[in-house]
Specification:
The complex is a heterodimer of chains A (about 325) and B (about 325).
Chain A: E1 5-17, E2 23-36, E3 41-45, H1 52-59, E4 67-72, E5 75-76, H2 80-86, E6 87-90, H3 94-97, H4 104-116, H5 120-133, H6 150-162, E7 168-172, H7 180-197, E8 200-204, H8 208-214, E9 217-222, E10 225-231, H9 232-237, H10 242-250, H11 264-267, H12 291-295, E11 300-302, E12 306-309
Parallel strand pairs in A: 3-8, 3-9, 6-7, 7-8
Antiparallel strand pairs in A: 1-2, 1-4, 4-5, 9-10, 10-12, 11-12
Helix pairs in contact in A: 5-6
Chain B: E1 6-19, E2 22-35, E3 39-43, H1 50-58, E4 65-74, E5 77-78, H2 84-90, E6 95-98, H3 102-105, H4 112-123, H5 128-141, H6 147-151, H7 160-171, E7 178-182, H8 190-207, E8 210-215, H9 218-224, E9 227-232, E10 235-241, H10 242-247, H11 252-259, E11 310-311, E12 319-320
Parallel strand pairs in B: 3-8, 3-9, 6-7, 7-8
Antiparallel strand pairs in B: 1-2, 1-4, 4-5, 9-10, 10-12, 11-12
Helix pairs in contact in B: 4-7, 5-7, 7-8
Classes of the chains: A alpha/beta (about 325), B alpha/beta (about 325).
Chain lengths: ~325, ~325
Amino acid sequence: MPSLLSVSKVSKTYRESTGFLGTREKEVLSEVSFELESAQILAVVGESGSGKSTLARQIVMLEQPDSGEIFLHGKPLQSEATVHQYIRMIFQNTAASLNPHKRIYQQLEEPLINYAGLSRSERANRIRQSLEHVGLDAGLVSRYPHMFSGGQRQRITIARALILNPEIIVADEAVSALDVSVQAQILNLILDLKDEMGMSWLFITHDISVVNVIADRVMVLYAGKVMEIGCVKDVLENPLHPYTRKLLQCVPKMGASLNMDFNEELSSPDVVVPSTGSGCVYRNRCPLADQICGESEPPVISSASQSVACFKA
Amino acid sequence: MSGEPVLLEVEDLSVDFELRGVSVNAIQSISLKVSAGETVGIVGESGSGKSVTSLAIMGLIKEPGFLRSGAVRIFGEDMLKLTSRQRRKHLGSVVSMIFQEPTESLNPVFTIAQQIDEAFKAHGSMDRAQRKDRVLELMKIVGMPEPEKVLRSWPHQLSGGMNQRVMIAMAIACNPSLLIADEPTTAVDVTVQQQILLLLRRLQQENNMGMIFITHDLSVVSTMADKIIVMYAGQVVEVCDTDDLFQLALHPYTEALLKSLPENYSALNKRMDSIKGTQPAAGETLPGCRFQPRCNYARELCSQQKPVLNVIEEFSPREVRCFYPLVSDSGTT
């Protein structure tokens, strides 16, 4: 049986301005491949600029990849209309992703009018159900977005994403802007929705402690390439890629003091840009890098539950 | 830190905002002390009054906000009684601040060199060549790669982490005794965060600076602060040494906050303990404890009377604003 979502060697290049009339091509995704099964949460982690959000945009067809293919139930993704029924997206900034001039009811109704072809009373029913799913009082639908708190607004955007009963929700930093107490509420909600509705999530985040709570699998991106992918337990407890290890090392641990003998030069992503040309993109920040890392692409080494692209793994 | 001189003393600081003729309390009787070389962490969720506290210390509260009471003494001198001209002399050279959004805090139409130079123009008596040398030196102190090139750049050409380094360079340009860092690493990646935290710690040690570190992230504050102040809805609810806080939280809010951190959950698919409800809205007044509607331990008294910040004898010098602090015998009911 084919996977729910199968992404195969997707690449994307953007043009970047280099000043007056000059442009330069920048590859932001490079042959990214992974599968997402039903009722599974796959977390995507990486620093800013690693291509996390670009990947999301390809999957919801806001953009077309330059090469590679994306399959849903084994069939290539084709029209935007079908994609929008099966794959929905939610964003970090809830204030910006809801229309401030429209009542919540109108905003939840819009996807139903566009894609579901339901009668007025059926739509009202679906809106009520959807709000109940996310734990909001259905009596609040005639309010405007600014009348809700950040956590409530994120619930509304999740309700809007749920309303067409999609199979996959792509969540781009969906809990990053929330306070920890509210973040915990939303993470619990996401786990409930996964269990009750069998929904799959592509959960993009920079916060590795969240990954531990919510995800079944995790994919680590660096400079548009997959460094490591596997079960959360394996990857977080036994990281094989030096970059994954670096990320985990940088997560502040509660009650632990700052590690002062950290090698400052090598690990600064604001100081060292990803390597270009042949070889591993991570090599100029990698403490293990030697000659071979600069000569050719690192091989992908896979076990049953974890695969890693590194010569030194 | 005993033995070090007290740099900053905030006493009974209250700030109100006047909204449509109604005065809304933003922070209520905040008191704190910072000694040289010490880091005091202020944690709390959005709306708890962390940033208002720091702005009030800097004397930057603007209309419609106003100071209702309190004193801010730096080296014994009350900052709030100074004229704005006198205060300007202190800002930057005595007390200095860095903000969350470095890219937004920098002026987009000036180069990095011009913006750092401004701090020297305002305070120092150095000539142009001396200032230029010092700006370059600062860039090296904050670990900037290719400093000459960065100095000629505009803020939009640099990454968030680089801009934060620029902000830090500006903040420490005139060797302040006290640095207030308001969520300095919230907008950057974990790897950059580690660098910024290391940089702040190094600068603090080299100059014996006092630091107020404001954040919503308990893990970050635990690695940086000697003492932690937990704020909720404009009030201080718990004050204690960092190590003690993570051993045992005495205020129910602190406990709930620690429990909602994802890093305390390792079992897959296990639900987290979240805090029910939301913080009271600005202007909403409760007859009792501000946390009572969300508190799992609330009793009758909590909704009737306002608790005060008390020193808990057996955990001294810890202070807790709760009628029933979570000391082993009374907290579990």
